[in-house]
Specification:
With about 270 residues, the protein is α/β, with parallel strands linked by helices. It has two domains: about 190 residues, Spore Coat Polysaccharide Biosynthesis Protein SpsA, Chain A (Alpha-Beta Complex), CATH 3.90.550; about 60 residues, no CATH class. It contains eight helices and ten strands. Strand 3 and strand 4 form a beta hairpin.
């Protein structure tokens, strides 16, 4: 069984990223910058494939890596992750111990006390109600399974897209919708060295509308309960913004997303066959 780390990054001008991340496995690095180039090198005896593209968007970056992956297991990553020694074996052993698992969420710690990561203290099955708290850098998947179900990242969500975040939550919910089995692991594989966020600029009206759009994308049936539970769980963070106003903005975002989606579907249906 073989692992590839799929790294999304921007504006890299040399090959030192492999060293900074402490990569000790094969990897594909998607470098969004102002040029188009392909290169391959070795680091610690592993194959590192570099692809530079003149484009922007985290979903686009992750999909470009997925399309070029050729391993059994892939782990999504960003350039601010530093891996622990032996992470490759930790990940592969978890999949070997649980052959039913199609997706496994691993623990990643944080260097920022204000942006802590949820830590799993035990291994357990994940469903829709408890899988939306995890970022992409914690997600490892069996490549064959997601290719069979044609699961990729949504291009309208995430850094550099129309809606500021949520591509990871949509990816996980799509995995569940297609019948894949998701598990959380207690194993720690790395640490996030957080920098200033490229998409979070405070709890603005756009932030709440984007959250509503995210939940509408995840579920047509359950978007209202998802919006409501988010307000109830996180209202203390909202800098005294009334919870009723937050819910109103989220529902506004959800309705607008569904309306745009319906319009797009209608246009697609009306297009004549080529």
């Amino acid at each position: 069984m073989r692992l590839q780390v799929l790294v999304s990054t921007m504006n890299q001008t040399d090959y030192t990223l492999s060293h900074r991340m402490k990569l000790n496995s094969d990897a594909i690095i998607i470098n969004q910058c102002n040029k188009i180039a392909v290169d391959h090198n070795e680091y610690n005896g592993y194959q590192i494939h570099w692809y530079s593209f003149d484009e922007r968007g985290i979903g686009l970056s992750r999909n470009n890596a997925l399309m070029r992956a050729d391993s059994d297991i892939v782990l999504f990553s960003d350039d601010d992750v530093v891996y622990v020694d032996g992470y490759k074996d930790l990940i592969l052993n978890e999949f070997k111990k649980n052959p039913k698992a199609d997706v496994i969420i691993f623990n990643v710690s944080s260097n920022d006390q204000n942006r802590t990561e949820y830590i799993n203290n035990r291994s357990h099955r994940l469903r829709l109600f408890n899988c939306l708290r995890y970022g992409a850098v914690r997600i490892a998947v069996r490549l064959e399974k997601i290719r069979k179900e044609n699961i990729y990242f949504h291009l309208m969500f995430g850094g550099g897209a129309l809606y500021g975040s949520g591509e990871d939550s949509i990816f996980l919910s799509d995995c569940l919708r297609h019948g894949l089995k998701l598990y959380a692991s207690h194993q720690l594989i790395g640490c996030m060295n957080y920098r200033e966020s490229s998409w979070f600029h405070g709890y603005s009206n756009k932030y709440f509308r984007d959250k509503g759009a995210l939940f509408a994308c995840i579920s047509k049936k359950w978007f209202f309960p998802l919006c409501l539970q988010y307000c109830l769980r996180h209202h203390k963070k909202f800098n005294d913004v009334p919870i009723q106003h937050v819910l109103y903005l989220m529902l506004q975002g959800a309705v607008n997303f569904r309306y745009k989606n319906q319009l797009a579907n209608q246009v697609t249906k009306k297009e004549p066959p080529i």
